[in-house]
Design a protein that fits this description.
heterodimer, A: mainly beta, 7-stranded mixed β-sheet, 4-stranded antiparallel β-sheet, 49% strand, B: mainly beta, 6-stranded mixed β-sheet
């Protein structure tokens, strides 16, 4: 019974390149969340998605960042034209529903380093 | 807006020592409160939670009580083990939604023999 799977675990990009981070939720979970942890800071909410829908993207930077959760396949967080300030750990979580009674299950994170 | 403040680490303890990691919060309404733990190389795991005032969450010997009067949710364990070495995150969520957790910065615990 695999948990939340994220890949790659580590990603190195040069400034201006694109980064794609993937997240496969737990079996039976249809809600996906992305969080970002900058160095020396706590995790910050970015976006909440259900299959083919973005429910809440209030934590997403206005430019260069996008997320999707297609009908088939993993959720993808895409960062275009990366800058050094994008270096962080990106965590994906999933839940069965979006209600407060549900608990988020987190993946191990993807660590992005921008040179 | 919501915020969570945790004591800074690292916290270094000898095995069998008593552990307290302080956590205070600022929120409107009545949030749910959580402690998550992250072992090296792994994702965050829910350790315990409390959804209303005076609730006590407990798991694996860890406890935390939801104190509305002091807006606190301190984590305690009577006797730590080396295997408890990890980073501990305090978090809150708005009532009725699991989507937007607000996290503290995390406290690293190192337990030595």
């Amino acid at each position: 019974n695999a948990g939340v799977m994220q890949n790659p675990r580590h990603l190195v990009r040069r400034r201006g390149q694109e980064a794609r981070l993937r997240c496969s939720p737990m079996k039976g979970h249809s809600h996906v969340y992305w969080y970002r942890q900058l160095p020396e800071e706590g995790l910050k909410f970015m976006v909440y998605l259900q299959k083919e829908n973005i429910i809440d993207e209030s934590g997403m930077p206005k430019e260069r960042f996008s997320a999707e959760f297609p009908k088939e396949g993993p959720s993808i967080l895409r960062i275009q034209q990366v800058v050094r300030g994008d270096s962080a750990a990106y965590f994906c979580a999933s839940s069965q529903s979006g209600s407060g009674a549900n608990v988020l299950t987190f993946g191990a994170g993807s660590r992005l380093t921008v040179l | 807006g919501n915020s969570v403040t945790q004591m800074e680490g690292p916290v270094t303890l000898s095995e069998e020592a008593f552990l307290t990691i302080n956590c205070t919060y600022t929120a409107t309404g009545y949030p749910s409160l959580f402690w998550y733990v992250q072992y090296p190389g792994e994702g965050l795991q829910l350790l315990l939670k409390a959804t209303k005032a005076d609730d006590k969450g407990s798991n694996k010997g860890f406890e935390a009580t939801y104190r509305k009067e002091t807006t606190s949710f301190h984590l305690e364990k009577g006797s730590v083990q080396v295997s408890d070495s990890a980073v501990y995150f305090c978090a809150l969520s708005d009532p009725g939604t699991a989507s937007k957790l607000t996290f503290g910065t995390g406290t690293r615990l190192q337990v030595t023999l």
